[in-house]
Write a structure and sequence with these properties.
The protein is 0% helix and 39% strand. By secondary structure, it is mainly β. β5 and β6 form a beta hairpin. The radius of gyration is 14 Å and the shape is flat. The two termini are 15 Å apart. Bound molecules: calcium ion (2 copies).
Length: 98
Protein backbone atom coordinates (compact mmCIF):
# COMPACT_ATOMS: atom_id res chain seq x y z
CA UNK A 1 0.00 0.00 0.00
CA UNK A 2 1.23 3.50 -0.76
CA UNK A 3 0.10 7.10 -0.64
CA UNK A 4 1.20 8.37 -4.06
CA UNK A 5 -0.21 11.86 -3.62
CA UNK A 6 -2.93 13.63 -5.58
CA UNK A 7 -3.22 11.50 -8.72
CA UNK A 8 -6.19 13.31 -10.27
CA UNK A 9 -5.26 16.83 -9.09
CA UNK A 10 -8.53 17.40 -7.20
CA UNK A 11 -6.82 18.47 -3.98
CA UNK A 12 -7.16 15.16 -2.10
CA UNK A 13 -4.50 12.46 -1.95
CA UNK A 14 -5.22 8.93 -3.18
CA UNK A 15 -4.26 5.50 -1.83
CA UNK A 16 -2.99 2.65 -4.01
CA UNK A 17 -2.96 -0.99 -2.88
CA UNK A 18 -1.43 -4.08 -4.44
CA UNK A 19 -2.61 -7.65 -4.08
CA UNK A 20 0.05 -9.67 -5.95
CA UNK A 21 -0.98 -13.17 -4.93
CA UNK A 22 -4.66 -12.75 -5.56
CA UNK A 23 -6.08 -15.22 -8.04
CA UNK A 24 -8.34 -13.72 -10.66
CA UNK A 25 -10.97 -15.34 -12.80
CA UNK A 26 -8.19 -16.07 -15.28
CA UNK A 27 -5.01 -17.11 -13.44
CA UNK A 28 -3.66 -17.99 -10.02
CA UNK A 29 -1.16 -15.36 -8.91
CA UNK A 30 -1.97 -12.84 -11.62
CA UNK A 31 -2.47 -10.17 -8.98
CA UNK A 32 -3.88 -6.68 -9.25
CA UNK A 33 -3.48 -3.10 -8.04
CA UNK A 34 -6.27 -0.69 -7.13
CA UNK A 35 -6.41 3.09 -6.68
CA UNK A 36 -8.83 4.56 -4.15
CA UNK A 37 -9.73 8.23 -4.56
CA UNK A 38 -9.27 10.43 -1.53
CA UNK A 39 -12.02 12.81 -0.38
CA UNK A 40 -13.04 14.83 2.65
CA UNK A 41 -15.31 11.90 3.59
CA UNK A 42 -12.46 9.37 3.59
CA UNK A 43 -11.57 6.44 1.37
CA UNK A 44 -14.44 4.82 -0.61
CA UNK A 45 -15.16 1.08 -0.49
CA UNK A 46 -14.66 0.65 -4.24
CA UNK A 47 -11.58 1.70 -6.21
CA UNK A 48 -11.72 4.40 -8.87
CA UNK A 49 -9.25 2.39 -10.98
CA UNK A 50 -7.81 -1.09 -10.93
CA UNK A 51 -5.62 -3.16 -13.18
CA UNK A 52 -4.46 -6.72 -13.23
CA UNK A 53 -1.34 -8.36 -14.59
CA UNK A 54 -0.85 -9.40 -18.15
CA UNK A 55 -2.61 -12.66 -18.90
CA UNK A 56 0.59 -14.68 -18.78
CA UNK A 57 -0.51 -16.67 -15.80
CA UNK A 58 1.55 -15.44 -12.88
CA UNK A 59 2.91 -11.91 -13.12
CA UNK A 60 2.33 -11.05 -9.42
CA UNK A 61 1.08 -7.61 -10.51
CA UNK A 62 0.97 -5.28 -7.49
CA UNK A 63 3.96 -6.72 -5.61
CA UNK A 64 5.11 -3.12 -5.22
CA UNK A 65 3.17 0.12 -5.67
CA UNK A 66 4.47 3.67 -5.36
CA UNK A 67 3.92 7.24 -6.42
CA UNK A 68 6.51 8.52 -8.87
CA UNK A 69 5.81 12.23 -8.68
CA UNK A 70 4.60 14.24 -11.66
CA UNK A 71 6.86 12.68 -14.27
CA UNK A 72 5.27 14.25 -17.36
CA UNK A 73 4.54 17.68 -15.91
CA UNK A 74 0.75 17.58 -16.33
CA UNK A 75 0.11 18.40 -12.67
CA UNK A 76 -0.97 14.86 -11.81
CA UNK A 77 1.11 12.31 -9.93
CA UNK A 78 1.96 9.05 -11.70
CA UNK A 79 1.67 5.65 -9.97
CA UNK A 80 4.00 2.73 -10.64
CA UNK A 81 2.98 -0.91 -10.20
CA UNK A 82 5.60 -3.68 -10.09
CA UNK A 83 5.07 -7.13 -11.58
CA UNK A 84 8.29 -9.09 -10.92
CA UNK A 85 7.10 -12.33 -12.47
CA UNK A 86 5.79 -10.79 -15.68
CA UNK A 87 6.95 -12.84 -18.66
CA UNK A 88 8.04 -11.38 -21.97
CA UNK A 89 9.97 -12.65 -24.98
CA UNK A 90 13.06 -13.37 -22.83
CA UNK A 91 11.20 -15.32 -20.16
CA UNK A 92 10.45 -14.00 -16.69
CA UNK A 93 11.63 -10.43 -17.13
CA UNK A 94 9.43 -8.54 -14.68
CA UNK A 95 8.22 -5.03 -15.37
CA UNK A 96 6.82 -1.84 -13.90
CA UNK A 97 3.77 -0.18 -15.42
CA UNK A 98 2.05 3.13 -14.80
CA1 LIG B 1 -7.12 13.28 -5.75
CA1 LIG C 1 1.72 13.48 -14.44
Amino acid sequence: MAGPGDVDADGCDEVVAGAPCTPTAHYLGEGYAALYSGSAGGIPALPSWWGRGAPDGRSCHGTSVAGAGDVDGDGKVEVLVGAPEWSGPLGTEGRAAR
